[in-house]
Amino acid sequence: MNAPSLALVVVVVALVAVGVYLLLERSLTRVIIGLVLTGNGVNLLLLVAGGKAGGPPLTGQTPPEDMSDPLPQAMVLTAIVITLGMTAFLLAMAYRSWQLTGHDEVQDDLEDRRVARRAALDRAAYEDVDAGTEPESLDEAAAEVHDETGDVGGRS
Amino acid sequence: MLLLLGLHGIAALVAPVVMRWAGRRGFWILALVPGSALVWAIANASSIAHGRIPTSHLAWVPDVGLVVDLRVDTLSWLMVMLVGGVGAAVLVYSSVYFKSGASGLGRFAATLVAFAGSMLGLVTSDNLLLLYVFWELTTVTSYLLIGHYADRKTSRRAAMQAIIVTTAGGLAMLVGIVLLGSAADSYRLSQVLADPPSGAAATTAVVLLLVGAVTKSALVPFHFWLPAAMAAPTPVSAYLHAAAMVKAGVYLVARFAPVYSHLTVWQVTVLGIGGATLLVGGYRALRQYDLKLVLAFGTVSQLGLLVMLVGHGTREAALAGVALLGAHAMFKSALFLSVGVVDAATGTRDLRRLHRVGRALPGTALAAGLAAASMAGVPPFAGYVAKEAAIEALRHDATWSGRVVLVAVLVGSVLTVAYGLRFWWGAFGAKRVLPGQTPATDVGPAAAAEHPRADVTHRPSALLVGPALVLATLGLVTGLAPTLGDHLLSPYAAGLPGEGAHLVLWAGPVGALITAAVLAGGAWLFRQRTPVERWQGHRPWPLDVDLVYRRSMRRLDGLAADVTGATQRGSLPLYLGTVLVVMVVGAGWALATGTALPGLDAIRWWDSPGQAIAGALAVVAAILAARSRRRLKAVVLAGISGFGVALLFLLHGAPDLGLTQVLVETITLVVFVLVLRRLPPYFSVRPLAASRWVRMAVGLAVGLTVGVLALVMPLARTASPVSVAFPAEAYEFGGGKNVVNVTLVDIRAWDTMGEISVLLVAATGVASLIFLRRRSGDLDRSGAVRERTVWRVDADAMAPLRASARARWEASVRAGGPARIHSEWLSGAGSLHPQRRSVIMEIATRLLFHTMVVVAIYLLFSGHNAPGGGFVAGLVVGIALAVRYLAGGRYELGDAAPVHPGLLLGSGLFLSAGVGLLALLFGQQVLESTIVQVDLPVLGHVKLVTSLFFDIGVFGVVVGLVLDLLRSLGAEIDRHVDAELDDRSGGDQEAPTDAAGAR
């Protein structure tokens, strides 16, 4: 008797599917809308996991056995507000991206592309002056090194 | 002992201060620290020799078996003597070796003392994990000291090489330690040794431990890092790379030899590698021109000999080994310190450029001579006593391995004598034919220019020569009193099988003959030095391990780049897609194999018909939002979908959720619109149709997986939910009837605390993205504004109408009419561009704002018993502020909330946390509620729960968040727009219409 109502499950499926579809977009605005939709879908999923519908969890108004599960509700409540904060942050990023580049599309990471390009050319990810393979004789290396020795005494 | 360790730690921390305060003399103060370890060791020498072993114990993380167990038996005692004694000598030496203004002396001194402490911990630790920690600490300090001159490529390279090689071995050793510890069921060293585990796991562990020892003690094939490490300042070479750190590997071998030397793999590894190292090091020492390099290869060679002796597994060899361990520390550090003197006095260490230095530096030459004699095994020095004991021990070992080892030791001793002589002659002797050159070229001017003769330009102070002389003399004194060494060291050897072993000066005629032969052979080899050098020069070393190392490092870089290039494509959709597909596969697999769908009869279509309608609204709006090409439309549709979800919440019996969802959707919509006004109205056209299908497929797959999850999850519950007891608990302990709200502010208050912290971070993030430089600028207040320029428009169609109305008004003022009609309440709206003002909006705001605030306060205080609470109340106030902003612009917002959002956020969080902590003062747990019931005159019976203040904190954070969003995404972006318009119009070209006479 604990099985969920099919209507809710359908809504969850639809919201998550559409949300993920939008999440995989490049336009940051669409990504944010996808995030909001997915968030709504997952919030419903949490509620569904808590069991079937019931009366509001208010002591005195609903008998405890008829209450809907309050725990997922508390979790979802915080999740909703966090989604607001996250949406706002991403929107600020979209705005900043628009300020800097004139659009809000998520570009490929330049550094990653550079590393991949260099790897394709069989070169190290970065040039390290200390990591050369050219042989250097120990004597030459030793001659270069000299300590900052002091005034060990008077001149002889 | 713990005190000593703590002393080292503190000294390392304060060393930079000491050095800044006392200059070079600071080294004297710091020398007291390792000196105290030496004094401690001397004071305890007798009792340790008699078997009274000092131990100390400090529980560090006892739950995971990590305790500081220290134990000083004979072997550890010897190492403490070396670490403390040589450490003190080197620090005193450093006080005159470096010039007073030398760079980084504070760091150098701190690292050196830290090393001394780590080494002390390493050799006294009785816990394998602790030993590993100290082991790696010495590696790190060694790295820092080798790389002391970080501006030199050679130093950086040598440091890097040393740390990579030794940490690689250290990691292997850690695996070995864990294997051994789990096999023995104890990480306590003395316990493991008392009852050593056997079997394949233990054998593997021993091999891995040996890998650690081999890398640390620079044995073949990892010997290459030690000569390169000569890039370190000479005192470091004398201490770390001759006396102390490189002995760690020897120490480890000596530690485990009594219980594991019978293993074949041990014998092959230790004796094979030790012998090879002994010969390779001695051979290569014969061709170096840099004095430190001669000594470095000599050290490599001697380390091989030491490992062979202590790892041989007989009592005699072990006693000889530990005796040589002590002798080597004395003579090798004395030799390095002498090189430092020569270097400081002449400015070079190249033996081709030094001539008759011994005359100018007699004290140094004497010290180096004594030390070299000890190294070569000349009677009656300590080196001789040890080597004599070794040869005696090996001579009586009739096994084939004993024979091979004996031959290796004899050949190695000959080489040692030869390079010892070559070193002393090279540093101090007179040269007719400069080595490395044929006599013919020697007289030519070119050769002289290439290696110009260096003369002694500075005379060293006594403090510079003293440490070397003391150490070298000690080598003579201990050699003259072999019974003392015998007495102190034989307890260690007693743990090994074998006959009674002794250290003596006269070991019989055969021993004397062998010694004489070795000395003679070495002297002959020294005489033949020029041919030997030429011969070595013509035959380059067949396998340059250093080059192998560098090439493999390069390959590793290449591999890393390949892996990065293959996995990090830099595309966000690709990463997200990967994550989601993994989720589908993982969760789908678990669902398909481990669960069953509920039967059709168990499924209800809906809980109520309204659910279907609200659900359809949410789904249709979401799909339309995804299809929309217009940004605003997509956002509005997503908002409608969100309202549908809010309805579903309400129908599910979650009024708090429904309320929150509606409010959040509203604010989200406002925030979206605020940002979207700056973005292009349409999404860019993306022609990649194929990728769209892929995205749809991924979306559908994820959606269906989640759907199956939703069907399966409610049935998968086996235990009764934790929340069954919530209603009763909420009323009894939390003092509230709204179970969700009590859950938030009391039962699961920690979650809420974390969540409002996230909100604070998000708000700060938004502000920092928009404000870029500072957010705490002046607030926009309407009193300061003169112009009606907010949200101005380019073309104002109504301007002529307004102009005529204005003319009429001015005429009436001139005629004596009222100059000002009334003082507006929404005065900030006066700053708006006239066309942006909306009478309906302003009137609505006037009606609504206060009502909303009052409702919010009601929700806040009643939230404990009825739907509402801090989140909902905060959101309502947020919407009220948004309405004010939309009606009156940014100046109105400043009037409505004349406070910085950061202040609200911070004080909100502070209040929540503070209330939570306050409970501690009353002996309760953090965030526990207290119920106070009072009867007040007007309000009647009041039941006050302390978690209300927590909720007020939440309220503050939420209001702060929304205010921050309005300030950043609203007001600040307005300012950006204005600045752009000003730039475009050039400021004065066309003053905004109606700007001049706003009032």
Automatic annotation (TrEMBL), chain A:
This is Na(+)/H(+) antiporter subunit C. It is found in: Cell membrane. The chain crosses the membrane at residues 6-24, 31-51, 71-95. Belongs to the CPA3 antiporters (TC 2.A.63) subunit C family. It is a multi-pass membrane protein. Residues 126-156 are annotated as: Disordered. Keywords: Cell membrane, Membrane, Transmembrane, Transmembrane helix. Its main location: membrane. InterPro entries: CPA3_antiporter_subunitC, NUOK/Mnh_C1-like. Residues 127-142 have a biased composition (Acidic residues). The keyword Ion transport does not apply. Gene3D superfamilies: 1.10.287.3510. It comes from Actinotalea lenta.
Automatic annotation (TrEMBL), chain B:
It is a multi-pass membrane protein. InterPro entries: CPA3_Na-H_Antiporter_A, MnhB, MrpA_C/MbhD, MrpA_C/MbhE, ND/Mrp_TM, Proton_antipo_N. Residues 125-416 form the NADH:quinone oxidoreductase/Mrp antiporter transmembrane domain. Keywords: Antiport, Cell membrane, Ion transport, Membrane, Transmembrane, Transmembrane helix, Transport. Residues 64-108 form the NADH-Ubiquinone oxidoreductase (complex I) chain 5 N-terminal domain. Its main location: membrane. It is found in: Cell membrane; Membrane. Residues 840-963 form the Na+/H+ antiporter MnhB subunit-related protein domain. Residues 616-680 form the MrpA C-terminal/MbhD domain. It holds the Pfam family MnhB. Residues 694-770 form the MrpA C-terminal/MbhE domain. The chain crosses the membrane at residues 75-98, 105-123, 129-146, 158-180, 200-226, 238-257, 263-286, 293-311, 317-342, 363-384, 404-425, 462-484, 504-526, 574-597, 609-627, 634-651, 657-676, 697-716, 753-772, 843-861, 867-887, 899-922, 942-966. This is Na+/H+ antiporter subunit A.
